[in-house]
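User: My notes are a mess, but here's the protein and calcium ion's SMILES. Can you give me a structure?
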Amino acid sequence: MKCSLVLLIVSVIIASTFGDPHDLPEYAEKRYHLEPFFKTNWFKAMQYCHSKGMRLITIASKEEQRNIENFARESDLGDESFWTSGTSLGDQVFYWFDSGKKITFTNWINGEPNDFDSDRKCIEILNETDFKWNDCSCFDNNKRVICEENV
Ligand SMILES: [Ca+2]
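Assistant: No problem, the inputs look usable. Here's the predicted complex:
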């Protein structure tokens, strides 16, 4: 009896010290994968992530933005741009392709999106602009791919 009481007290102390392991911020629930060997267009990027059982990145909050920035910086690739799953293909507004959700949190470069010729329907993030967003042609072949999955 004494032993189980001590065990219970220790359990409560551990739980209150370390918290519930499921109670993590949203950004901590994703794992990222950077493809270091090729650059490609948005469609191939999407296909590549799906082939790995992952998704092209979605940035739904400030925390996710910061997490992806840190991840991309750690890759140490220098000035690069990276595809996100953000697009306005088939729509008049930008949405996250994999979740189908309208984009609410944004981090555009000043003056963006500038879709004046209706040809810039996919969202890239650029190292050189502190990972702010730009709408560009989905057919640009010069961007890197970051995939994500839930953990
Ligand atoms: Ca643009």
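Residues 112-114, 120, 134-136 surround calcium ion (CB under 6 Å).
User: Great, I'll file this with my notes.
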